């Protein structure tokens, strides 16, 4: 039996009375979880692991620089995945592989092996391969595209693994340490979609590392539908072929109709958004274009509302097509292609879900009030499939995500890794 000192009893007693705020009404952390976390926080081996996280900060800094300077746009993560897999092996894992889509996965067997807990951070960044990703230094800040989102997340995963190896921390469940591909942009969660595909090996709980401040806990997924709408026609000279149906005109109609009708969904209830992000087509000012396209992003925490605004977009495109074709003076009809280029399922979990309770209790145990949020992360996919999941902080402070001036600063960065360690041990079950 692991002994619980008197001061730990006082800690759990205080924790059991804490209630904290978020967008929705938040429950108190259940005593079962505060007791579990309090016991872990005073366990000799766990303390040794947390101390190691502080001791290896120079190594973590070197790893952050090295991984940041390996470009990893979606669909081109191979080099970073290979190096991350090597780091997993160097940290002590003997079962390390890169799967069919490029995820780097290391398995740490548990003493029972009846459950599997995944601890993951995404490998990819939003930047194209030609981007200069050299790390620059300004006082205490480290600047480079992708250094925070999500290269630091990979370093957090490595830090937790090294702490467990150093302290000899065994878990009852198997733990998968993962660097997954395709979280950003049109990567469309392809890494986690593969992990949770039909017939894939079972994962019972999924913990993602992605995001800034140590108080951040993502318990729900903001879903998204992304489309490329393309109108096509014969095209021709603006004077000589005047009267042909015009794809640009049709696209303009479609955008106007969509924007006019979207508030019937976006203006009520769960936050839902719509955005025309890119448009293109045409060859010259005096030519009727043969093609006109737009890329559309729609988001919501409610799958039903996401489906509703999806239907409005499709109806707008069809109505615009009909109106433009009916108004033409000559020539063939336009066509429209409505192609989905990205899907992220939405889903909200009950805050009583054990992994969420454990993440909350751990954060509180470090003297930090949890900031419960919904967002679009790798956790979207397991949540949509009913698998308990949470996305937690990578530690430190960062800003400028998705910009060339992105930076990360090691302000108590070890705390984010320590919170990850304790939460993972609680969810996977610390073996006696």
Notes on the structure:
This protein is α+β, with helices and mostly antiparallel strands and 432 residues long. Helices cover 38% and strands 23% of the residues. Strand 1 (95-98) and strand 2 form a beta hairpin. The protein has helices spanning 6-15, 31-42, 44-55, 57-68, 78-90, 147-167, 190-195, 247-261, 263-266, 303-327, 354-365, 380-384, 413-428, and strands at residues 95-98, 104-108, 116-122, 136-138, 141-143, 174-180, 205-209, 216-221, 223-232, 236-237, 272-281, 287-288, 291-300, 335-344, 347-348, 371-375, 389-392, 397-399, 407-409. The strands form four sheets. Strands 1, 2, 3, 6, 7, 8, 15, 16 and 17 form a nine-stranded mixed beta sheet that branches. It starts with 5 loop residues before the first helix and ends with a helix. Helix 3 (44-55) runs antiparallel to helix 13 (413-428). It has two domains: 6-222 and 346-428, Aminopeptidase; 223-344, Alpha-Beta Plaits.
Give short descriptive properties of this protein.
432 residues, alpha+beta, Aminopeptidase, Alpha-Beta Plaits, 2 domains, nine-stranded mixed beta sheet, four-stranded antiparallel beta sheet, 13 helices, 19 strands, 38% helix, elongated
Work out the count of structural domains. 2
* Poorly predicted tracts of residues: 1-22
Helix-and-strand structural type: alpha+beta
The CATH superfamily of the largest domain bears the name Zn peptidases
Under CATH, the topology of the largest domain can be stated as: Aminopeptidase
Count of DSSP H/I helices: 13
Helix content: 25-40%
Coarse morphology:
elongated
Distance between the termini: 7 Å
Q: In total, how many beta strands?
A: 19
Largest sheet: 9 strands, mixed
Which CATH class of the largest domain?
Answer: Alpha Beta
Mean pLDDT: 93
What does the radius of gyration come to? 25 Å
Strand content: 15-25%
- What is the architecture of the largest domain at the second tier of CATH? 3-Layer(aba) Sandwich
